[in-house]
Design a protein that fits this description.
Blueprint lengths: L13 H21 L8 H11 L3 H20 L6 H27 L3 H4 L13 H5 L3 H8 L10 H20 L2 H24 L4 H6 L1 H18 L2 H9 L1 H21 L12 H18 L4 H6 L2 H8 L1 H20 L8 H33 L6
């Protein structure tokens, strides 16, 4: 088998940290505002809800970024004899400690009687067994049992999808040459929406369409395609020559994005699930390629904005813990689930965001950064 030699990607691009920040803030905005009760008849609330409604697409942006970074790591070290042990050890040190901390918060807080009684116990109790969360199979259980699971650990379904991707992708990258990898990614772009349509039309299972790896592989594989493009000088030069059409594509994508947001569609609706996730993935891939190909552009300057890039650095903590912090503060202050009918409730939500960011900064400094330094000791050779 002939193996193509990948050209290593350029160094760290600060704008991609900002892109991560956008991804996590989209998800937080959806949970904090678009998914909780708000007053009817208010133009301000209507505008805010519309602006936040498509925040779930932040997960698609995370998928594209994960595919890009993980695909790039694997491509850069595909011939290394220590690829698999080094990759899995590094991923474990990055993912598992914070995830274990989240699980610990879950088991501790579900012993707080008042907190567990809110929303009929939905924060902590669901048909999904605890062991599914320890094995990163909660997304499979959610689809099989047609339940989103408990609210406290709700966002972890996408983490399970990514972990399953991390488990499989090294073998594809190691065993396939460049052309075969491109074909694999393109097949995934066709197969994933077809599977989502099948889940909706034949199984009437919207959660399967949204939560399972085969149905969401298009976003991750778009990221891998971006990693392949960046490591091919001719392909990257083509992107640079097509700058004007790329900008036009991104502008058109923003218009479509805004229109879908105003529509208020659900994550598993027929308007979104069949092709929407694929379109999100392609759009976000265009943004990513623009930032990499044109690091001095105005768009890259926006994403390099210091506070936004800082949020990107702590995005993993923010993604995992924003909902638990939010739930806990509303229970502690009002003995109630989050709502936005009063200024006080909105203030507590703002406080939850600030506290989450502060805790995320502390986690980055005292836990995540030391673990990343430890992970780098496991060399790819």
């Amino acid at each position: 088998m002939t193996r193509a030699v990948a050209t290593p990607a350029p160094g760290r691009i600060a704008a991609l940290d900002g892109l991560r920040g956008v991804a996590v803030l989209m998800v937080v905005a959806m949970h904090f505002y678009a998914r909780v009760p708000t007053p009817d008849g208010s133009l301000a609330h209507l505008v805010l809800r519309s602006a936040c409604n498509l925040g779930f697409a932040g997960v698609d942006l995370f998928f594209v970024l994960s595919g890009y970074f993980i695909g790039g790591i694997l491509l850069d070290h595909r011939t290394s004899p220590s690829l698999l042990p080094a990759f899995y050890l590094r991923r474990g040190l990055r993912i598992l400690p914070l995830y274990a901390l989240l699980l610990a918060s879950f088991f501790v807080c579900r012993e707080i009687r008042g907190l567990t009684s809110l929303e009929g116990g939905a924060y902590f109790w669901s048909p999904i067994a605890d062991w599914n969360y320890f094995t990163f199979t909660q997304n499979i259980a959610a689809a099989a049992q047609r339940t989103i699971g408990n609210y406290w650990l709700g966002p972890t379904w996408s983490l399970a999808v990514e972990e399953q991707f991390y488990l499989l992708m090294p073998f594809f990258v190691r065993g396939l040459d460049r052309r075969q990898l491109v074909r694999l990614c393109l097949c995934g772009l066709v197969l994933s929406p077809a599977l989502r349509i099948a889940a909706l039309a034949f199984a009437q299972n919207g959660l399967a369409a949204v939560f399972l790896l085969p149905m969401r592989a298009d976003g991750l594989l778009c990221g891998v395609l971006c990693a392949l493009v960046v490591r091919d000088p001719a392909a990257l030069d083509t992107v640079r020559r097509l700058r004007r059409p790329l900008v036009g594509f991104l502008a058109g994508g923003l218009v479509i994005f805004a229109a879908l947001s105003v529509g208020g569609f659900e994550t598993y609706s027929w308007q979104i699930a069949p092709l929407g996730y694929s379109l999100f993935a392609v759009f976000f891939s265009g943004v990513l390629l623009h930032l990499v190909a044109f690091p001095s552009s105005r768009l890259a300057g926006i994403f390099r904005f210091g506070p936004l890039a800082a949020v990107g650095l702590i995005s993993y903590f923010v993604y995992l813990f924003h909902a638990p912090v939010w739930y806990f503060l509303h229970w502690y202050c009002f003995n109630a689930a989050p709502v936005h009918f009063t200024w006080a409730a909105g203030g507590v939500t703002a406080l939850a965001l600030a506290l989450t960011l502060l805790l995320g900064a502390a986690s980055w400094r005292y836990l995540e950064s030391p673990l990343l330094r430890l992970a780098r000791k496991f060399s790819y050779g």
